[in-house]
């Protein structure tokens, strides 16, 4: 019953902004292109802004194109993340993509993180192989009960595995999540650990979003759709439980060339590494 309900809800969502999203804060810092297809978020000295999906989802493929603030963007963070709630509640689950601005000509970094029941501290940082401020690029998350994979232009940059143990405390898989996008000032930590301050003479800082695409199980309250894993959808099927051979090659290249920080290698911070660090991304 749950399975068939979920199947019927597993539609690809690509409609207009109004169909999919609500503005969370600062409506006046937010604009859409004339054709309604591109959404721009502005940060100035007063505030940033953000939007979120109307729906929650549990498992699926979540994708969006972003073009990030260019030029002198140090201190500015553009985020695109999934979270079980609107806010930093103590038991939230969260999957983060954060884009950390930089001084003109210095490289952007992407930071990813995974929270389960309010606990994060699972940061990774990567460089990109393109300038994310020049064009739109696609950033995606694949989420099923076996793995969470973060992609940039379909290249897997981070793989976060489940160990199959229902009681583990690291793999978010029970609660549905909204998808959020926002821009804000984080010059207390983002760029070179907070050393680089936001240059407000360059404000407003604008990041743009387009091509929102969800192929996932849409949660319906009170009926618990999506409670059981099904294999009716490609993102839940065996092939999506691990990287394909060509994805493994891409992932190996990213691991060799683009990883700037990996919490699983930070023995100073974690004399005993968190349990999930022993799981192999190659399985
Ligand atoms: C910004 O550029 C500096 C200098 O190239 C680099 O060390 C740093 O990792 C870059 N990004 C951030 C977020 O600090």
From TrEMBL:
It comes from Morella rubra. This is Xyloglucan endotransglucosylase/hydrolase. InterPro entries: Beta-glucanase-like, Beta-glucanase/XTH, Beta_glucanase, ConA-like_dom_sf, GH16_AS, XET_C, XTH. Contains at least one intrachain disulfide bond essential for its enzymatic activity. Belongs to the glycosyl hydrolase 16 family. Catalyzes xyloglucan endohydrolysis (XEH) and/or endotransglycosylation (XET). Cleaves and religates xyloglucan polymers, an essential constituent of the primary cell wall, and thereby participates in cell wall construction of growing tissues. It comes from the Eukaryota. Its main location: secreted. It is found in: Secreted, Cell wall; Secreted, Extracellular space, Apoplast. One of its GO terms (molecular function) is xyloglucan:xyloglucosyl transferase activity. Residues 1-209 form the GH16 domain. One of its GO terms (biological process) is xyloglucan metabolic process. CDD domains: GH16_XET. The lineage of its organism: Eukaryota, Viridiplantae, Streptophyta, Embryophyta, Tracheophyta. Its EC number is 2.4.1.207. Glycans are attached at residue 102. GO terms for cellular component: apoplast. The active site is at residues 94, 98. Keywords: Apoplast, Cell wall, Cell wall biogenesis/degradation, Disulfide bond, Glycoprotein, Glycosidase, Hydrolase, Secreted, Signal, Transferase.
